[in-house]
Every structure is written in structure tokens, then in C-alpha cells.
Amino acid sequence: MKAAIEEWRHWLEGSTHPFQVITDHKNLEYIKSAKRLNPHQAHWSLFFTRFQFTVTYRPGSKNSKADALSRRHDRPLTDHQPESILPPSIIIAPDTLDLMDEIQREQRNEPAPQGCPANKQYVPSRLRLRVMQWVHTSLCSGHPGISHTLHLTQNSFWWPAMVKDVTNYVKSCFVCAQSKTPKELPSGLLQPLPIPQRPWSHLSVDFVTDLPPSDGFTPILVIIDCFSKACRLIPLKGLPTAMDTAQAMFHNVFRIYGIPEDIVSERGTQFTSQVWKAFCKQLDINVSLTSGYHPQSNGQVERLNQEIGRYLRSYCGREQHRWSEFLPWAEYAQKAFIHWSYTVPMRARIPTPHVPVVWRTITSTCCRRLDSP
């Protein structure tokens, strides 16, 4: 409106009769009576005082003359959808189509070649990128590495040169490049910890701190079973005391998996206090503290902390206050991983409870009394 009045200022300024401005923008009716204006609007209001006019609202359906003049007539109207300027390979958006149904429809044009396993779904060439993207970026997988992504893909799908395609896809994943950290080990001779003989008998414990608040939670208590590599991720309202740590361990680990034999932890105040030592002594748990300023002594839980950070950065990088919502998914993804350094049978997930000394003494005493005449 201001541009039009400026264009015909030599006709409108100084007119003895007010002219009428017809617009489909209803808010412009109050432009001359508005009291709270920003600097631009105040400058325009001062300009409008030089003219006598009234603003009349007319819906766009009835304002056909001005609407027709505002359209470009040099471009023909077309019914087809315009083509995207971005190649499909870099477009990441939710797919509303059922992937399996689309694979089966595409197989009519590209049937499975000879040598395709009978228990695998052949993926035509046009849909292979979508399958790899779906497997790699799913919440249940958590942007894993090449080996894990290949294993998850081979569970249900097959196509020639699958290993090469999956390797190239994971190496070119932009989210992985941003969120993952280097895994090179430091030089030097490492002294290994004792090898556990059953699940949940030897635990490694640590805290992940300095996180943004998420539903009132700030740190994470990270617990990993050194035998099966299963983990528990417990969000906490704040950095706990020794008593709070003992209660969290009992309610989230001991109550479910049994009492362990050994717990490896850093030298924080929670694990060096007399409360923690008395708690572990009462349950016949050995307390193992790492070397000072040497986190590699507790390497399993430190490595798990890196994976947790990578997972949370992958899914809530721009919404960091939502990390507590994704924490259960991170725990599920870590438990679903296959650790290639050893074979984990299904029975490794089923714990054999550790019986403290006091209960072993009571049991042996009762057995002797039953055996005595």
C-alpha cells in the first residue's frame, strides 16, 4: 500500500477529497489508529499523514482485479509437480510408504537373480539406499558402525555387493561423522582386569556429567556387566551421594540381576566414602578403584560412555533438553549390539545370582543339620 501511494503521490497528495484504498489484508484497516508501532511503522504512519484516504477491506475472492494484476502471465500453468533441485540421495525425510510393500512391487520390474538366499528379501537397486538408511538410522540401531549395520541388514535383506554398499554408506554418514569420536588406543602395556565367569558378577560403574537439564535429570549413572556387556543407564536428579548411589545400584541392578562379586569404579567421593565401603562389605562385594587420572583402567564403561554420547548426539543434537527421552532407546541399542571380540550366547543375558558369604554359611549349616542323624 505504501509503495502504491508513493508511486502516485503526485496525484494523491493535496487532494481535497479522500481516496479509498481497497485491500484483502484486514489488519490494514487499523494502520492509522494503531498506537504501538515499531520504528518502520512509525515512519510509515508519518508518511500517511500527508494523504487523505480510507482503507476498506475486501476478501481476496472478491478482489479479483488486483489479484489478477499481481500474478505473472509469462509462465504457463502446468499440472505436473515441479522437479526437486536436490538429488534423492541427500534428501532425508520420513517415508510414509511401507518399505516392504514397495520392495515387493519393485521386484516385478527387477526380479531376484540366481543365488539369492531363500530366507532373505531381495532388494532392487532403486531401494537399496533407503533400506540402508532405514537400518542405520533407526532408533533401535542407533547409527552403529559398519559391522553392526551389515549384520542388521543381512538379517532380512540381500543383494549383490551388499558389503561394499553398506561400507560406503556408513563411511559417508554425516551424522556419524559429527557425533563419533576416534577410537585409537593409547600406547603402552595394559594390565587386564580379571575375566568374569558368569553374567553380572563383575560390574564397572561411572557417571556421565555436565549434561543439559532434561526433565530434571542432569547426570547418568552408567553400569556395565563385564561378562555380557549388557548395561543399565540410570538418569539422576543430581550428582548423588554415596547412599544415593548405593540405593540406585540396589534398586536398578542388585534387585534384578543379583549381587555381584566385584565393582570397578573411579575414585570419586561416592566410591571412596565409608558409607560405600560398608555397603559393599555387608553384601560381600569387592571394591576395585581405578588408578588416579587414568580412565583407561575402567575402559569398558569409558567406552560405553562414548557410545552413549554418540547416540544422544545423533538423535537430540539440536534438542539437547530431550536426551532423557532417548536414554532408554540408547540402553536398548547397546544391549542389542553383537560384540565381535567374543561370542555372546543367549544364556549370557540370564544371570546366576551371587550368594554372599552369610547366606552360603547359613545354607551349609542347614545342609549339615539335615544330613546329621
TrEMBL record:
SUPFAM superfamilies: DNA/RNA polymerases (SSF56672), Ribonuclease H-like (SSF53098). One of its GO terms (molecular function) is hydrolase activity. The keyword Hydrolase applies. InterPro entries: DNA/RNA_pol_sf, Integrase_cat-core, Integrase_H2C2, Retrovirus_Pol_polyprotein, RNaseH-like_sf, RNaseH_sf, RT_RNaseH. Residues 59-80 are annotated as: Disordered. Pfam families: Integrase_H2C2, RT_RNaseH, rve. Keywords: Endonuclease, Hydrolase, Nuclease, Nucleotidyltransferase, RNA-directed DNA polymerase, Transferase. Residues 195-361 form the Integrase catalytic domain. GO terms for biological process: DNA integration. Residues 64-80 have a biased composition (Basic and acidic residues). PANTHER family: PROTEIN CBG26694, PROTEIN NYNRIN-LIKE. This is Gypsy retrotransposon integrase-like protein 1. It comes from Cyprinus carpio (Common carp).
